[in-house]
Description:
The chain is an alpha/beta fold. It is built from 17 helices and 13 strands.
Amino acid sequence: MESAPRAPRPLDGLRVIEAGQLLAGPFAATILGYFGAEVIKVEPPEGGDPIRRWRIVKDDTSLWWYSLARNKKCVTLDLRTPEGREIMRKLVNQSDVYIENFRPGTMEKWNLGPEDFKASNPGLIYTRISGYGQTGPYAPRPGFASVCEGFGGFRYVNGFPGEASVRPNLSIGDTLSGIHAALGILLAYIGRDRATGGKGQVVDVSIFESIYNLMEAVVPEYDGAGVVREPSGSAITGIVPSNNYPTRDGKTIIIGANTNSMFQRLCELMGDPGIAQDPKFKENINRVENQRELEDRISAWTRSLDQAEVLARLEEAGVASGPIYSVVDMFADPQYQARGLFEEVQTGFGPLKIPAIIPRLVDTPGQTDWPGAMLGAHNEEVYSQVLGMDAAELARLKASGIV
């Protein structure tokens, strides 16, 4: 099934059991699997992970699935049954990491919580992703990314003044919590050798806290100065100029000339170098106070040129700038190609490009070995090799609907 020779990777030898669904838990496991971990994805026998059918579906499988479930060994197991839970217990006891993103309390109800593995697998890194975390008065609440993005502070600052908050057309909360979970797992993995004497620990990740972790200076600015960060449209509060600007051909560019030296070069490019020495604009604090006037001057200049021309001039002058890309633009751009950001995999309907996973490790890079597999594709391999089941036992479990 593997499409390329298996080069050494940093997480080789790490076994991960993923019991998550949809996006947060599965994305954490995707990152680990890309860099060498053996990820065993456990799904319910009926239908599997719902994301198999989400968004754009081709040949009865979501195109997203081929990316999100890459490098995962897909097995089925009915955790609603006592025997299914016992099999899961055996799998987890043979593993380094367990990832689950069920509502808090579910694993405990099934006797699959962290305490249930302390004696049998003391080195286990038990990773939990939920909307609000495992503790606190809101822990039992269902936590969807959309709700937690608002609760975590992101939606408040995202939008235009006086208008309803805006959601980006992505489940950013889920993806961010998946990244935080992967980071937490790796920290616990290092700590198992260096700080805890071989003992594992619980990694407790919440979606709202993953959003909260992006809030930069929002907390100290409020506590120390009573300032509430408000939405600011396409600009960013307190840093000028850093905004979107229109061009003559009806397109938009981004200019971020907020250092004094870069602002000087922008003014020279606009044909008015004296602006940079004007007391109203000389320092960032002055530019913030007179933002509207300065933005109007820059917009008047960008409107006099087509997008390609103004970007070429800005690049030559060393002023940070760029276009606003759609996926069509990404595919056509040589930087994306040079960085290897599209990996081609083979599916039942032919080749498909999926995104490479970041970060880039120069000496032990990750890679996609195979795209997301069909439901239960690795049942025989995992249950026979990891748990020692024979063909008769597997047939019995299948007939009973447990796998």
